[in-house]
């Protein structure tokens, strides 16, 4: 199961990818250039996760009406503190006379928000109420670059091409679609046109974690998230290879839990928690049923990390974290559980 599929399944109103919520005429909002999706898709009924049904790639509008072209990035991962290399090429579809033109790197933050509305009568009694979820977005970073210089004026049919190298975010945050929240980056060429809408070209940038940045302590991690083995009470949960785990890879998990006891069944799970206005707790990304006795004897299993799992992060009240959790289901009693944190990049 992918990360976004798990978030959709955790909601009260799961939807298929590509489906349109369009619930009750409610609309979400996303900043340019992350405004390519119909705002009706950015809202849904109470308990749903409309943002999880929208991919990061769908959000970025590649061009405005007055420009034909693209911003193309060099192949290969882009990590925090490194560089972004690419080429801009365009043809003007009409005359453009701008006050200025600039290449820039923009970071966007989109979050699901729980909304409600009530109507009351003269006595103050609620006569009608609505509860829904809508996506709210804003740019948290706008970094302009003077090179390459972009022509402020273009005549219809005029072409322009230029190579560029700009720095990736020095301290992040990394790109990440967390289901109920999202952090995205884009390289954008913008023409500031007076009395009309601005002209733009844009492309999504996947900014990934730099392991040196992660190990430096710049990202707040739960205790044990970067350890090969972590002990809690009399249980030890070990992972190979040494964390951070890589999205799309597999890890080997070994659980030694002498006091696991007996029960109707047991499970080993990979869970995620999302810190956001519409927070998520204990989203199950992978689960396997096992015999409780195998925890006491020592159990080793291969656990897949979803390819779309966002890197462990924390930024301005948004965050995602992961844990390996072993549980024993006991009849007529509360479950037994032990867990450890896991860093993902």
Q: Can you give me a brief rundown of this structure?
A:
The protein has 345 residues and is mainly beta.
How many discrete domains?
2
Strand content: over 45%
The portion of residues assigned to helices is under 10%
The CATH C-level class name of the largest domain: Mainly Beta
Overall shape: it is: flat
Give a verbal description of the structure.
- This protein is mainly beta and 345 residues long.
- The protein has 2 domains: 3-208, Immunoglobulins (Immunoglobulin-like); 214-342, Macroglobulin (MG2) domain (Immunoglobulin-like), CATH 2.60.40.1930.
- Helices cover 7% and strands 48% of the residues.
- The chain is built from 4 helices and 22 strands.
- The strands form 6 sheets. Strands 1, 6, 7, 10, 11 and 12 form a 6-stranded antiparallel sheet that branches. Strands 17, 18, 20, 21 and 22 form a 5-stranded antiparallel sheet that branches.
- The longest helix has 8 residues, at 3-10.
- The protein is flat, with a radius of gyration of 24 Å.
Topology readout:
Elements: H1 3-10, E1 43-45, H2 56-59, E2 67-73, E3 78-79, E4 83-92, E5 96-97, E6 100-120, E7 126-145, E8 153-154, E9 159-167, E10 176-177, E11 181-192, E12 199-205, E13 207-208, H3 211-215, E14 229-232, E15 235-240, E16 250-256, E17 265-275, E18 280-290, H4 292-297, E19 299-304, E20 313-315, E21 318-329, E22 336-342
Parallel strand pairs: 3-13
Antiparallel strand pairs: 1-7, 2-4, 4-9, 5-8, 6-7, 6-11, 10-11, 11-12, 14-15, 15-16, 16-19, 17-18, 17-21, 20-21, 21-22
């Amino acid at each position: 199961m992918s990360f976004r599929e798990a978030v959709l399944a955790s909601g009260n109103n799961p939807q298929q990818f590509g489906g349109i919520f369009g619930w009750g005429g409610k609309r979400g909002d996303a900043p340019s250039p992350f405004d390519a999706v119909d705002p009706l898709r950015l809202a849904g009924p109470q308990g749903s996760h409309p943002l999880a049904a929208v991919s990061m790639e769908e959000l970025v509008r590649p061009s405005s009406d007055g420009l034909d072209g693209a911003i193309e990035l060099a192949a290969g991962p882009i990590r925090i503190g490194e560089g972004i290399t690419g080429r801009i090429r365009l043809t003007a579809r009409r005359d453009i006379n701008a006050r200025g033109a600039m290449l820039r790197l923009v970071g966007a933050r989109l979050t699901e928000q729980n909304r409600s509305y009530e109507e009351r009568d003269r006595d103050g009694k609620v006569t009608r109420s609505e509860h829904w979820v809508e996506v709210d977005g804003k740019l948290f970073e706008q970094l302009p670059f003077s090179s390459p210089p972009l022509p402020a004026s273009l005549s219809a049919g005029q072409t322009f091409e230029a190579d560029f190298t700009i720095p990736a975010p020095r301290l992040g945050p990394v790109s990440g679609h967390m289901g109920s929240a999202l952090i995205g980056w884009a390289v954008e060429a913008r023409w500031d046109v007076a009395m009309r809408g601005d002209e733009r070209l844009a492309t999504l940038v996947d900014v990934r974690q730099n392991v040196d940045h992660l190990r430096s302590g710049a990202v707040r991690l739960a205790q044990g998230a970067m350890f090969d083995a972590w002990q809690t009470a009399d249980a030890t949960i070990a992972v190979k290879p040494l964390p951070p785990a890589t999205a799309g890879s597999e890890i080997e998990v070994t659980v030694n839990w002498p006091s696991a006891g007996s029960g109707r069944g047991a499970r080993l799970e990979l869970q995620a928690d999302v810190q956001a206005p519409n927070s998520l707790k204990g989203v199950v990304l992978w689960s396997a049923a096992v015999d409780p006795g195998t925890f006491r004897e020592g159990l080793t299993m291969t656990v897949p990390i979803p390819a779309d799992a966002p890197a462990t992060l924390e930024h301005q009240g948004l965050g995602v974290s992961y844990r390996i959790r072993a549980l024993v289901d006991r009849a007529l009693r509360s479950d037994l559980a032990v867990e450890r944190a896991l860093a993902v990049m």
